[in-house]
Amino acid sequence: MSGHHSSTFEFSNVFSFKSIFLKLIGVACAVVAIKGFMIPNHFLDGGLLGISILIHEIYYIDVWIPLILLNLPFVYIGYKKMGKNFAAHTLVALVFLGIALNVLPIPEITKDHFLVAAFGGVFVGLGIGLVIRSGGVIDGLEVIAEYTNDKFGLSAAEIIMAINTTIFLIIAFFLGLEKAMYSILTFFTALRVSDYVVDGFEKLISLTIISPNDQLVKEIIVNEFNKPISVYRGERGNLPGSFNENKDCDIIVTVVTRLEVHKIKKAIAAKDPKAFMYVQNINEVKGGIVSRQNAH
């Protein structure tokens, strides 16, 4: 952050209507999952939520107490790592979560184990995703993963997976293998739902096209779909049975949303059926036209 005025303005966003609304809806979804699905059926999730419910199961402590306490160190790490704006968003979300777990009377919704795992995961994922969209988190493992990533060179996904594997092994020891397997299902459902809520239809995809008609492909992407492109110099050919046959070509790369990629591929295939295309998911984009167009 550069300057006092800028940081004050960012901090005020914590209390904007959109931010508060997303946090309240996200917290409500998380509480439905915790009190309506998971605790009554002794199901757990991954992350700090899973650890908190495990502590509740073993020591009969209200789940909000370990959940808040376990998250507080990560609020501080988030403050040091990502600034006061992120820490304030997270602290507000945790306060809402603690209050909601105490005052919202959520009855047990179902005893069916599969429904508990599936819909418990859905509501946890909705809660986590909406709070992330509001600017904070309600599970500090995301913060420690980013922090440890810089320290040890491991990816955030590897760190979270290692921690959660340990949690599920502990669940298997204390609550049985079946509960551990259902908890894994809950975790992966929550993970997919939260990813979708955070990225939504705006999730970015890299589309690469190799074609003898590279100029035509460029015109379709830039002029018909108004998308920027990058061009690499490469060669086509080198196929089995004709290894020595190759020709220079332009390799065209563009970054689009998941809604756009199908339309662009279809348009290119209609005019150039032999064009070779492949897509890759993108975890992060910084700078450039795409980043500015998709900034929230």
From TrEMBL:
Keywords recorded for this protein, A-Z: Cell membrane, Membrane, Transmembrane, Transmembrane helix
Keyword Transmembrane tagged: yes
CDD domains: YitT_C
UniProt keyword Cell membrane present: yes
Span of the signal peptide: none
Residue stretches spanning the membrane: 20-38, 86-107, 113-132, 152-174
Localization, UniProt: Cell membrane
Coiled coil regions in record: none
Cited InterPro entries: DUF2179 (IPR019264), N-reg_PII/ATP_PRibTrfase_C (IPR015867), UPF0750_membrane (IPR051461), YitT (IPR003740)
Residue intervals of the DUF2179 domain: 246-287
Name of protein: YitT family protein
